[in-house]
Amino acid sequence: MPAIMDGDGRKEMSKDVIRLERESVIPILKPKLIVKLADLIEHSSDRTEFLKLCKRVEYTVRAWYLLQFEDLMQLYSLFDPIYGSQKLEQQHLSSEEIDVLEQNFLTYFFQVMEKSNFKIVTDEEIEVAHSGQYLLNLPIKVDESKLDRKLLSRYFKEHRKENLPEFADKYIIFRRGIGIDRTTDYFMMEKLDMIISRIWAWFLRVTWIQKILPKKSAKSKKDPKKADEISANVDDQDLFVERIRIENMELSTKNLLGKITIQEPTFDRIIVVYRRAGSKTNADRGIYVKHFKNIPMADMELVLPEKKNPSLTPMDWVQFLISAVIGLVTLISSLEMPKADFWVVIAILSGLIGYCAKIYFSFQQNMATYQNLITQSMYDKQLDSGRGTLLHLCDDVIQQEVKEVIISYFILMEQGKATLEDLDIRCEQLLQEEFAEKCNFDVEDAVQKLEKLGIIARDSIGRIYCHSLKRSNEIIGTTTEEMVLKAAQGHAASLP
């Protein structure tokens, strides 16, 4: 099931609602999780053993990934857009050898992204995200001539993936987590644009010009039959988020003159990967990795690489020219009539002037908003890029893995044996009841890590159970980090 789908079937028809699938990421901070679970343990001795187990689990999981992460960072140093070319020159590698290394980097990178519960944005998700407008009201497109097509095409040829977007040969967008962004303002120009648009739509309808103008594509329109099927099979774990937009606003004095609040679901984290196109004489080997936060779905164009400067779309020009020609013809015909109706002439002139004003003022306002949003995305929304993003991802993988293991073990310790399905339900219930968080817990991955640690087993009918806290700590054993900490404490105690 796709992560984003229309979901109006459960809401009022006047509302713009989308359905979002719960994700596997656990949003709770690890220290908060451990402290809360430890407080739920009755005996203080068990609480101490549990805290020791949590530390040993983290140290061990970190050691598992250490070598893989080192390889990832070493490979990326060769493709860093700033210093990578110098290091490649020092290596004296052939073009074929560099191709192999960059594919190895992408293999490690995609594994880390999967472990961090990031997902590749699909065409369907982008279509739903762009079916509405938020703060950005200009059509933004990528200058594809400035992007390389070989790097990602070669990777996906060797590593087949389903539901890849149509732009997957040029750049990839990963997303994770869902949030809500709200903006409160007067939005005077946007309200004016909305009023003019409604007046113009009324004018086109009463003058029958609407039937002559080219119709918009119905690609994004929802099939009512399909929507009914979706609403009939809705998962109770799914989120329903309402889009509150200016174009759907009710006309009232309070709304038009006062502040209003608009709302849009966001992608909590977005990572974009791409390579710039090189020249015939100088191939660009740099790989760009950019990390953004809290990007509204309808404004996803903000993270696109190598954006073109926005301008009026061909459809805007076609509608403008056709409307102007038809309006002028209607105006001349009215004037040539023996008894020309003065108010009809005024209505036609007002419609033409209003439409031209709408195009001009809307474009100027949208350009100013676009520049502000681009600046904001660079300074506020962009978390990091390149090596900094990779370091963040590596730590994020460890944190997620550790939290999955701790939660699963705690449930088995407190509630006894469980099947895989029961363990999944219990872990999700714990997160909801104790932390007020809902997520699609990745129980299979958690059980695999518990088995690798050796602290769980299965009975004769396949149910999973855990060893005692003391025995589990003995199985994992004293970690290197604990020995270093003990030695450091002993050295500190011996100082005068």
Produce a short descriptive summary.
The protein is an alpha+beta fold and 496 residues long.
Average pLDDT for all residues? 82
Main beta-sheet strand count, sense and barrel state? 5 strands, antiparallel
The strand count comes to 10
User: What are the segments in which pLDDT stays under 50 over at least 5 consecutive residues?
Assistant: 1-13, 217-235
Terminus-to-terminus distance: 65 Å
Helix proportion of residues, in percent? Answer: 40-55%
- Physical arrangement of strands within the biggest beta sheet: 3-4-6-7-8
**Count of discrete alpha- or pi-helical segments spanning 4 or more residues:** 16
Assign an overall shape. globular
Beta-strand percentage range: 5-15%
| N-to-C SSE string, H for helix and E for strand | EEHHHHEHHEHHEHEEHHEHHHEEHH
Rg result: 29 Å
Broad structural category: alpha+beta
Protein name: Aminopeptidase
Keywords: Membrane, Transmembrane, Transmembrane helix
InterPro entries: DUF3754
Organism: Dioscorea zingiberensis
